[in-house]
Amino acid sequence: MAITLRAKWEFAAAGQALPRQQAEATFPSMTVVVNGRDDFTLENYRRVSEGGEPVTIGPRAREAMAAARADFLRLLESDRTQFIYGVTSSFGPRVKVTIPPEQQREHARGFEFRGNWARGFGGGYLDERVVRGIIFARLANFVAGNSKARPVIAERFAALLDGPLPPVPLDGEVGAGEVLPLAHVLRDFPRDGIEEGEANPVVNGSPVSAALAADAALRAAPRLDRAERVLALSAAAFGVPADAYAEELGELWGDEDEAAALAALRRHLASASPGRRQAGQVPASFLILGRVLGQAHRAVAGLTEAARVSLRSVTDNPVYVPPDAAHPLGQALSTGGFHNAMAYPALNALAAAWADLTLLIGRHVTALRADDPAAGLGSELSALAEEARAAAMPTLLPAAVNDPQDDVSSPVFGAYRREATAAECLDGALSLLAGEASRVLDAAGRKGPDPA
Question: Which Pfam families has this protein been placed in (predicted)?
């Protein structure tokens, strides 16, 4: 039986292949080898998180870690009374407790990666691909020696990818850093033989933020492409004249993202029947497509950049800086690397872009149904638009009340969840618009853009 244009576009808008034409993505059986921070790319992240590939610590990384470990021990032995967080002091709220030199080795061996403080609450769990991504992102701290840890600790961490992977609560983040979700990731991490300075590199830092940003970024570009194709289909169905998306507008507006959005609309509309309406008959929701889609381009690019930077960042607290002329033994610096200030604003911006597009889609359906408004999808699309708008309310830095040490909390989990909700609303709205625009074109016997 022939498949109608409407059916083809409904599948395409949902990001699905046609029946019996859907091919499963396959990844070659390979291994990601990491020798330095430059190996922590979005592509390698995808290979590990989605492709299921293992990670091997390369020889250059093992050499760098071993050398830095020896340097750090020389720094520590030079004065075991100096302040090095988690090594000569206790952790978290007990940071003012000094660990006597003769107890520091035992203190390191006794560190607990799990317990009551690792409980999550509500909200479901992260997808397994994201848990794999967290493990990958954590290894960036190790490979150049900044973690102070021996190569065996990094290798143990990489071995967690062999599974089984533990469930990590989506709403398990209520601290200044990311110790709580990492405690879930570390459920099966072997604790035997931990030495001074090797506990914090495992549980401190902000690899969860890096993984959440990377996961959302990898899904953002395909979603934006689907949105552009479906909105071009809608413009074709309504009969928007070609000059609404003319190339000259990109130059006049002076923004490369808006120019890219206009180019995408022209590309998708190239094979469609020409527009039949005068510019004065076209609602604003069609005319502003280039500008609103341009903002979505900016948001996708912003999140992609935040993910790129975050994946290769060293975020340990404390972080070890190798020796130089001014510091012949190196330095152990207490830092705020456990807080990622790039990820959640970028996720906020993307959620807002998805919400705006969801609203535009509702206006398009109303315009396409102008001759028969009673048969429209107004209530369903209005509900999706309102849910997306609620999800797009910005997630900001939350205060932690009555906690003199961890007096702020990380907002990245909330931002990630809100972006995912807004994205789901957009996906649903795109499917409805694809079906409605295809119906209009089928009924008129007109050609629309190719959904492929």
Answer: Lyase_aromatic
